[in-house]
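Example protein as discussed:

>
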Amino acid sequence: MTNAFLDAHKTRRTQYALGKSLPVSREEITALIQEAVKHAPSSFNSQSSRVVILYGAQSDKFWDLVRQELKKIVPADAFDATEKKLASFAAGAGTILFYEDQDVIKGLQEQFALYADNFPVWSEQSSGMAQLAVWTALATVGVGASLQHYNPLPDAAAAAEWNLPASWKLRAQMPFGSHEAEIGGKDFIDDAQRFRVFG
């Protein structure tokens, strides 16, 4: 089956071996991220996703904040492996921080009380779709990335460092950069285990 969307979707893979050389300009990357997030779906068209894009030294600073927080809780004899992992993320050209604006969610809960319990769940789904849209868009221009979840450890430090609104809740981090190694194959479970088709 040939389909442009599916072809793009299949190129999106986890890349841990990142480098600082980008195949396109920072301006193009920024525009790509903005467009991908802007057109990602959200419940009630709430557009609750917020994004911080960090390049170069700013990205390095974020991973140093994560390192400082992890040093407080990771046993000393295990910290070397943790530090190496964080260094692989900092080796990239940048990092995207995905947030969800809690004020938007609270506003929807007040406006549509019948669905109040669902809005936090729908917000998480919106964030996931924005993350996938960005990841796939980056893959189409030859940029490698991975998705990380160190939140809530660096949340307060990142909010202070970049003067972010208190209502922004960090949901994921995406280090990105050049592909510095081949991406291995991916195994799939049998379709019969995942899909049921009727009619």
